[in-house]
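For the sake of transparency, this paper describes our internal protein records without simplification. The tokens are whole numbers drawn from a learned vocabulary of local backbone shapes. One such record is reproduced below, unchanged from the form in which we store it.

. . .
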Amino acid sequence: MVVVARVSHALATLDGVDQETQARIDTVLQDAKGWLQEQTVVRQEMFAQLSEAVAEGKVQEARGLLARVNAIADHDRTDSESRTARTAATFLAGVLQEHQETARRLNAAAEAKEEARRKTARQKTQALQRVCTTLRALRRHSRTMPGTEKRRQVALLTDLAAAAGDQLSRSEVNKIEAWKARVQRERKAPAHVPGAGSSGSGPRRAPPGRDHPRWCGEQLGTPFLALISQGPSPRARGAEVDLLSFRHGVGTIPAPAGMVPTRSEVLE
């Protein structure tokens, strides 16, 4: 538009031309004037559309119109056109800044999420390592480990398994469940009562009476017979032992020596 206006002005002030040339110049000037009027209407409409797009917050449309205005209507703007262009530029700059801030927030959130994921992965890996260590300790020392310590280790193992999550293998899960079941069984098992079973419940006393007494010679006296009424069988040597005096005794290991009477002699 600026070039056409300048050329039109130059042709209009041209002097020293003949009538035919002037007629042609007048025709060109008339056409240029009509074109300029049309472009003025288009320009006004374009600025009006730009203002409307900014008011309605249409970012893409406002960006396109402002680029077009700057390309074809950058010179000889009216005050109204200049205000519209500045308002549109400010609007688009604010939108751009907002988009940048949003992008920074999203990037920060994405980085935080990724860091949280890495941290969780590290925690799971550390928990898995402690699970393996605890399982080895239980396997190696369970026989000598006190019950309270064993239960503490299994409780720790349960917490570590929850922290390890999907890092645990099926084999490790099965081992943990087996230890939990084992601890439950041991807690429910009755405590050992001293003296239960065949070991006897009362204090032990030495059995009264003799225990493998030995004697030799003849003529055993009555005091000796009182000593051999209980306990394991006496061992005897010599002759003249009156077997009838302890035929009803409770001896268990007879070991006589010397002269032993016959069965008929004992029964008489």
